[in-house]
Amino acid sequence: MRPVELVNTVVHDNFSDFQIYEDSIPESVINDVHSTQVLLKESQSDISQFGDMTFNSVTVGVDIQIFYSVDYEEDMILTEIKLMKALENDGWSITNSQPHYIDLSQTDVQQTIKNISINKILTLEEVGYN
To answer: DSSP letter at 23?
Structure first.
């Protein structure tokens, strides 16, 4: 299973009303400012934890970009804390959490965007290698 699929499950389980996309947001919905969209992109895939003259695990990373709905009424910081805690509970480490910024490419209505980077070490058995 790809790292973005693992993260997709965690996000969906905690925020089922978010639209979650892997790799790219489809053209047909990219301008929908009335839905909160989450874009997941794989950012890291390295071998790690060596022993017995070979590697024993892989480190995978995912960049999470949240495009908040202009109608979003919840506290964004609390939403992000809930998401980051859910990811930590699933074994992910938060490696970067950038400040919010406004999407200036939108001319009529501007969305707030949040970027979070995470990674996780998976054993070879966890990825299905025997």
So the answer is: S
